[in-house]
Amino acid sequence: MSRISRFFKGGGSAAAKGRGGPSPQEALARLRETEEMLSKKQEYLETRIERELAAARQHGTRNKRAALQALKRKKRYEKQLSQIDGTLSTIEFQREALENSHTNTEVLKNMGYAAQAMKKVHENMDLNKIDDLMQDITEQQDVAQEISDAISNRAGFADEFDE
């Protein structure tokens, strides 16, 4: 079964069907394959257009019927090329949207992991315990400041004694 037939008939891997659809990576890979195929077809059509134009010039006024047929084929190829351009634009847009969606999903997943980690870290923390600890720290800082002040003041032995 060809790729296009599988695409439109819902063919694909059993794993993709079992999960409810392909993964973003699988979908991106398929979109890239389709882009490559269409790009090759574009190149092919461009060379065919050039050949038909060359054939029309070659026949010129000597064989008008052959020149007109070549121009008609060229016109058909140009129409196909235009359709492929539109299809490629649509596929590129879809691929970019899928890449953005996948990125957003990964970002959200990682943010969820971070939130769970923060929750785990904060599990053992109690607001009352933290408040008590902060009061203890403040008290100890006050004591340290008093000690520092006491040490840094000059000893006024001479001032204390009166003759």
TrEMBL record:
InterPro entries: Snf7_fam. Keywords: Coiled coil, Cytoplasm, Endosome, Membrane, Protein transport, Transport. The keyword Metal-binding does not apply. Residues 1-25 are annotated as: Disordered. It comes from the Eukaryota. Belongs to the SNF7 family. This is CHM4C protein. The lineage of its organism: Eukaryota, Metazoa, Chordata, Craniata, Vertebrata. The gene is Chmp4c.
